[in-house]
Design goal:
By secondary structure, the protein is of the alpha+beta class. It is built from 16 helices and 24 strands. The strands form eight sheets. Strands 12, 13, 14, 15, 16, 17 and 18 form a seven-stranded mixed β-sheet that branches. A three-stranded mixed β-sheet has the order 1-2-6. Strands 7-20-23 form a three-stranded antiparallel β-sheet. The chain starts with a strand and ends in a 7-residue tail after the last strand. It binds adenosine-5'-diphosphate. Residues 45-48, 50, 68, 98-102, 163, 166-167, 413-415, 450, 454, 482-485, 497, 499 line the site of adenosine-5'-diphosphate. Adenosine-5'-diphosphate is lined by residues 45-48, 50, 68, 98-102, 163, 166-167, 413-415, 450, 454, 482-485, 497, 499.
Amino acid sequence: MASIQQGPNGPVLVLKESALQQKGKDAQQNNIAAAKLVTELVKSSLGPRGLDKMLVDSLGDVTITNDGATILKEIDVQHPAAKMMVEISKTVDNEVGDGTTSSVVFGGTLLAKAEDLLKKDVHSSTIIDGYQAAAEKTLEIYSELSKKIKPDDKESLIKIATTSMQSKLISEDSDTLSKIVVDAILSIVTKKGEDYFVDLENIKVEKKSGGSIQDTQIVKGIVLDKEIVHSGMPTKIDKANIALLNSALEIEKTEMSSEIRISDPTQMQMFLEEENRMLKTMVDKLHDIGVNVLICQKGIDDIAQHYLAKNGILAVRRVKESDMIKLSKATGGRVISNIDDLSEKDLGSANLVHQKKVESDKWVFIEGCKHPQSVTMLIRGGSQRVIDEVDRSIHDSLMVVKDVIEKPEIVAGGGAPESFAASQLKDWADNFDGREQLAIKKYAEALEVIPLTIAENAGMDPIDTMANLRAKQNQGRKWTGIDAKNTKIADMLSIDVVEPIAVKEQIIKSATEAACMILRIDDVIAVSGGPG
Ligand code: ADP
C-alpha cells in the first residue's frame, strides 16, 4: 500500500517494493489509495477558510502556500498513480491557472467513490462509461447555468479577480490587488473581430521585498531591476529615443592569445588611443542618430560609459534577454547586435525613462511607451516569502481574468454550481440502467465534495449545511452556495463570489480524465530502465 513517510526532502509518498508487481484488484486498490492520499494532502486548503501549508525542503527553505499546484509541485511524489494526480493540478494550472485544489480533491473523490462500486463488483469499464457520460452532462448543465458577461465589463472582472484571491494569503488586500490585476489586463487586451485576447507575456512581474502588499503597483511600461551604469549620466530623459543592443559595447578581444611587442612608450599610448577612438566613434554614431537612451544586454566598457555620459546618453547594461524582447515590443525598437547596422528607424521610443529608488535599490522605469501593450507589475510585501506567495496568487488572478475575457461566461462559486449539477445529475441518472446509473450517481456525490469541503474547512457542519443548501436550490435558488466567510449559506452571486466557467469546465475535464485513466489500470509492472 502507498503511504506517506518522512524522506530526506520532506514527506514522500512511497510505494512498497512488493507493490511494483500488482495485478487486477490489488493494483487498482493500491492506485486508488495513493490518489486518495494526495487528495487528503490538499483537501484542508480548499476554499477561503482553507489552511496554508508550510513546505520545508532539504536545505531548510520554507514555502508557505495555499495553492494546490504549488503544494503538489514541491512534495516528492513517487507513486505512479499519485503522480497522475499531481499531473491534474499541473494541467489545470497551465490551462486556466486556478481550480487546482478543487480538481485534485474532486479527482480523488471520484476514485474513492469508484472504490465503493468496485467492492460491489461493478466493473471498472462500467464506472468509466458512467463517469464519462456524467462529465459530459455536467458540462452541459454548467453551460446552461452560466451567465454571459461583457468581456470588458470592469466591475465583473474585478469580482472574478477578488474571488480567486479569497482563498489566498492576499485576501485581506484583494480590494487593491484585484483592481491592479484588472487594470494590467485591460491595458494589454487585444481585439480580433468580436473576440478578445490576452497575452500574459505582456505583463512583466518584478518583485521587491520591503514595504507592504498594499504598495504593489502597476507601471504602464517596463521596469528594469538595474541601475544606470555611470554616475555622470542623466537620470531622467523625456522623449526617449532608445537603442536596444544585444552585444557588448566594447572592443572585441581576439579569440587567440596574441602578444604585441612594444618597443617605445608612445606606441603603447597610440594603442590605447586607438581603442579610445573606436569606442568614441561608436558612441558618436549613437549620438548622431539621436539616441538618448541605450539599453544593452551585455557589458559596457568604462571608456564607452564615459563618452556616453559626456553625450548625455542614459545607459543600462546586462539587461535580461526576455526584457530586451519586451522592450522591443513596447518601444517599437529593433534589437540589433552591431552599432554599425543601427539606423534611426531601429530606435524605440518612450515618453519618459527615469531612475527611481525602490527600497535600497535604484531601478530604471521606461514609461509612456509607443505600444502601451506592455505593463509591469511591481509586487511588494514584507518578506521574500510573502512576495513569492503574492506572485503566485496574482498569477492565478491574472489567469482567471484572462479566462473570462476570452470566454466571457461566469458561474457563482462557493460550491453552488457543483451542488446544482449534482442534483440534476442524480435525476438524469434515472434514464440509465442498473450499474451505469450507480456510477453516474456516484459522480454526482463526488461533485458535492466541493461544497462539503468548503463548509468543513469553514468549521460548518457539513451534513446540515448540505441539506440546507440542497433544499434552497430545490426551491429554485440555483446560486445558493457556502458563504465561508460568514459561515452560512447564501446567494453567491449577490455576494459577488463568481468564477469563470472555463475554470469549472477544466476541473471537470481534468479530474474525470485522471480518475478514468487510473481506473483503467489493472496491472502495475516494474520495468527496468527509464527515460534517457
Ligand atoms: P482552487 O485551487 O481549486 O481554486 P481554492 O482554495 O482557491 O482552490 O478554493 C476555490 C473555491 O473556493 C472555489 O470553489 C470558490 O468558489 C470558493 N470560494 C471563493 N471565495 C469564496 C467565498 N467567499 N465563500 C465560499 N467559497 C468561496
